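Task: encode each sequence below as structure tokens.

Item 1
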Amino acid sequence: MANLQNLVAELKGLDDKLAKCMRCGTCQSVCPVFAETLKESDVTRGKLALLSNLANQLIDDPKAVREKLDRCLLCGSCQSACPSGVSILDIFMRAREIAGTYMGLSPIKKAIFRIMLCNPKLFSFLMIVGRPFMPIFMRDQKNAPHTACAPLMKPIMGDRCVPVMPKKTIRELYGDLDIPTGKSGIKVVFFPGCMGDKVYTNVTEACLKIFKHFGVGVRIPNNLACCGIPALASGDVKSFRTMMAHDVEILKDIEFDYIVTACSSCTETIGEFWKKYAVDTKYEADAKKIGAKAIDINKFLVEVLKVDLTPSQTSEAKTKITYHDSCHLLKSLGIAKQPRDLIKANGKMEFVEMKEADRCCGCGGSFTLTHYDLSRKIGQRKRNNIADSKADIVACGCPACMMQISNMLALNKDDVKVKHVVEIFADTLGE
């Protein structure tokens, strides 16, 4: 337990930010959680009221405080809509940090963040060792492409449908990858993230195909750790800084023009949170330098490479495709037009805009693990909008969204494929 005096001192840092909130309730109209529960404590206004008396609340009922703070997707919808410009995400993440310091982490989160994610070699080893046992537990879903369920693990996983794991990770396939710069004259570090390395290797492969086509030099260091956002969002700043330091040590001596990711959460973390949490450490200058070069793959292709967005010609019947705006990609990075333009560049596709394309899918990182029933209700609304669009494919710009939406479509027995935008664009480039 943290010293109470230190706790009170830390809470004072939230006062100025909290003072901006006028309690107008605009956040109610955009909050996915409030839309399902209609509880004031689940909307931003209610949580900010809680935070104004956080010290007393933590002492009186710390478990209730953590539960209320955790019932947030950190999707940024409230912050985008706030007429007062309250830095809501900063406040919530700082509050989680304070609560985590005061109360500590659960044994499961400690194991995941401090043992597994902080040790990428161990993480990879566990994946390799566990792979032969996957067929025992996992069963492919016939109605949903590339997803599987785990009947024997239902007490733990419930009825979730998860992506079918690849036979090899990107780390296993390529090791320390270093492709020389070609006709583009640009060299990038590609940061695959945990999902791009171990789950959605097809997304990373699509990015590599695009880089090769346009003559972009690529470096993927062999031992990168998680970007750290799962730990940070849970208030575990210690683990976050460990992962950040590990990655900065690897990247600081590599010459590159951009650090590109196909995960908007990774992009925001590298671009914003690394430099913020590296202040007053020996990594401050390097984290700031690296963060300034962070860019999402959609923006990189459209604004840096300036790829030809003229729709490819085809005589084939077109496939209907729609697009889901991932929260961090749209609300944090401001990227909306670029992925749509890349999709439309594929002449095989007929783009249809879904209703509420910018509404959260309900994943929220660990939110879907700790509040699955609520996550599923929010996800059902997204699934319904996809179904109403009559699309055969739904494209996303975030692997976490891909996982959540795949689960919802599988649970509803929808024969709709889920792909990353880069997969759709890479298909225009031939073999």
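Item 2
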Amino acid sequence: MIYKNLHYEFIAGTKQSNIKFVLLHGWGHSLLNIKPIAEQLGEYDCYLIDLPGFGQSDMPTEVLSVSNYTDIIVDFIRAKFSCDDRVYIVGHSFGGRIAVYLGAYYPQLISGIFVVAGAGLKKHKRLLREVILTGARGLRTFYRIIGRDVMTSSLYRKYYARFASADYKNATPLMREILKKTVLEDLSHIARSVSVPTTLIYGEGDTTTPAYFGKKYNRLIKNSRLYILPTFDHNSILSAGKYQVASIILNTIKD
């Protein structure tokens, strides 16, 4: 076991069914953020998980990869469900990364995945930002060589204040290392290996995981379905968009 003390919340369905949902939240969130979706899936048992380092789950003691997070969820699935259960994964943003891994490497454990505003692909590059990022990496390397903390550089502090994401700024040092390790991984090659039924749901107004992520995943994952919901952004797709998202999920499992 690479990790212990995983916190989760169980919401019992209103009818007896072997259909079970496991819901995985995004980076910087907790199970509370994805709970509105679970509440709309009321007929079925739902397990909402606080991923390691978030919510009420313990902090990791080492730098985890997406593969490590996936292994933790695999252990949870094996412990909670029987071979007769039909387990569906609903993953938002970072949770979508884990869902893609599960669909590619553990198809025997699950019946399908729902990727909601899923991360895991590279954004279209903007030249100015790439130049600045390359310069920042070079400055970090130089300061490492001379044995100084790059944060003592006024130039780097200005860059950090301007370009570092809120997720990075708000994270602990260990979680920053996990964020860097996971965000840099492009899941394109893994998506091609997904063999379970896959539904992709993206918001048209999402700038964090844009709708073109969904279109690319749709090309990579065989027989996947793509839904792009108008007006919703990265987070509102879970709140104002909960009815549409849940409707897609429920209609899909009944097909």
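Check on item 2: The mean pLDDT is 89. The longest strand covers residues 86-92.
End of task.
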